[in-house]
Design a protein that fits this description.
about 140 residues, two-stranded parallel sheet, about 15% strand, elongated, two-stranded antiparallel ribbon
Amino acid sequence: MIAQTLPAEDLHNVALLEVAMVDLTATVRCRLWLDSPKGIVFGVGRALLLKKIDEHGSLNQAARELGMSYRAAWGKLRQTESVLGFPLCNKRRGRQGYTLTEAGRKVLNDFLRWQSEVERLVLQSARRQLPFTIHPDRSREEQNG
């Protein structure tokens, strides 16, 4: 129960709020990225792009599946590589697509692991501190396969 040190006129509204919240369910959504003065270091969008490149072996196919142009995907990839100072993907010989570098795979896996840990902590905190039924964001599981 919310502290009853409120003025009498507010107690009625607090009681209504508590009753309304009993049946409220909510989903925790959390979007993470790392930023630097040089630009975006890495984030959910970059992680999805690398996962799709790895899945399809094609930047064009990855871009299409994520609903962006090849040029936009290529620009995001190059910008992040520039900020990091190393390549995340290699172009296969003969223009046959892309593969993740070992460094690209490590950055992707480390980011996904960090993201899962942060989301778990955010969910625990929300459940502890908020008077709602809180559910995790299941759409992330679908994205992560």
